[in-house]
Fold this sequence. Notes:
One of its GO terms (molecular function) is calcium ion binding. This protein is mainly beta. It has four helices and 51 strands.
Amino acid sequence: GQIVYSIAEETERGASVGNIAKDLGIDAATLSARKFRMITGSSKQYFNINASTGALSVNEPIDREQLCELKSICLLNYELVLENPLELYRMEFKVLDINDNSPSFPLSEYHINVPEFLSPGARFTLPNAQDLDEGANSVQNYTLSPDEHFYLEMQIRGDGSKYPELVLKKALDREQQATHRLVLTAKDGGNPPKSGDVPVIVTVLDTNDNAPEFEHSVYRASILENSPSGTLVVQVHATDLDEGPNGDVRYSFSNTTSADLQRMFSIHPHTGEVTVSGVLAVQRPLLEMLIEARDNGAFGMSSTAKLLVEITDVNNHGPEITITSLSSPIPEDAVPGTVIALLSILDKDPGENGKVTCQISENLPFQLKPSLQNYYSLVTSELLDRELISEYNITITATDLGSPPLTTQKTVWVQISDVNDNPPVFSADAFNVFVEENNPLGAFLYQVSASDLDIGENGRVSYTLRNSTVAGSALTSFLSMNLANGSIYAKCAFDFEQLRSFHFQVEAKDNGSPALSAATTVNVYISDQNDNAPAILYPTSQNGSVAVEVVPRLADEDYLVTKVVADDEDNAQNAWLSYHLTHSSDSTLFQLSPHTGELRTTRSMRSTDFLKHKVVVVVRDHGDPPLSSTVTVGILLADTLPQALPDFDDSGEPPPLLNATNIYLIASLACVSFIFAAFIFFLAIIRL
């Protein structure tokens, strides 16, 4: 079986707990004989059994907190073993708590730092006291020493446990009282109750409740615009009543100060010196900046002062010329006053240094006119002529009124676009073309040329033949023309003897709108070729007969027998004729004048002269190569004109002895005579 006993901790040694023999119903006299013994897992033997009476007493006082620590129920388990017969009994001792421990705090002193800026109602967790007793003997409540700034409140956690909190009742002021010493007391529920306390030292942290104060709310300084980097502008100073980091002041530009100004100036964070750190490229003479002084407190406080820096202008900016609008090219027929460009001229310097005068060269057909503020219009002042000047480089000069003045120049390139205001112009008022007759078909005759000062389509010239007639026929039956380059070609072969010259007009027209044109005259002169032999007009022969002239038998020397008359349809030297006597039956009797064609006797007639004579006259021109004609003249020596003219095919004069015919006759006669003599000789031999 099992038996349970309850015993208070710290019960004195020897105190009776119970009678085990009586409680278990065992004969106490047999305990010793049955060799009883108590078995426990504890290292100490807290109980003892009297072997003769079975009385159970305390062998050693029990410290519940040491034995069970913080357990809510503290039990000691024992086993009682008896032999003869063997029996086993379980014994359970419930150790009851007594209020033998006072509450205690883990630390001997607690420190709490409270910022002075906190408002009433702020809470701070206080430490829990520890009490080794349990139940009502454990810590039941806390108390706080009286203080006008703090009071104590108990809070309950989610698990039901309680803990103390320090609550701020009145605002703190470090400058009046920097430290508050409190006592926290923990009490248990014992009877009598026990308590424990611990000092709580509240240190009032210096809150940054005093902002730095500048000596002046507005600082003024003046500096030249071209001041180099590092130039001191001004030194600002601010004080802070706080101490430590809360009283250490650092200087900087406020966030409201533009980034451009912060690049131009810098401020030393500790000394408050404001210096130039960049180029003072500003457009206004007075710069406004806000300087912030901030302490180093955890919750830094700050104040600002205004810094006004007057920039004394230096004429260090030249005028800036910007072309905001440009019309180029412009037509050459633009009327005066036409706007070409709109210019913006700006000088970043203020005052007189920023006032600008603007001009261009006087020898240009343009002028500048003021428009809106800082704007100028570039307009035409005269009529333009692209053919004279096709483009202009207009140099615009802008000068400010500073001392010394600064000047800026900008060149505007303006092109002049073409207008069809120039007709084509031929290279000559008239063209003379010389062409030889008998030219081949399609032969190139001439190329007229006209120029047009315009460009592009306005200057592209085409050529046409104006309608006209030549020798009763249309001009186009004689000539053709290349419209693009003005080349003239022959469509037929010219004949000098039929057409020696003619003229026509060529029109040149440009491709503008409207088109402009011009005309010129082309004179065509056909030059002669030696294509006609001289024509003998006198003496004439009919039906191939010889022309006969009768000369008195007693004609004297230099008697005019006849005059050969000839004509040549060619011209110039091709028609220059000369006369030559190529054959005469008596070369001593007649002579021929080479220029006049007169045939005369060279001596007086003799009775021995033949009655018939025949001469051959050649008429030759001076062409290259020369052409000629011949005429045969029969001359009859008679005092009167016979009724019938003799035949002049045989002239009657002795033939030449050794002409070809006589040679043939003599050879034939010799051959026949030789054959005949040979035949006679042959007959004679046969007879003999």
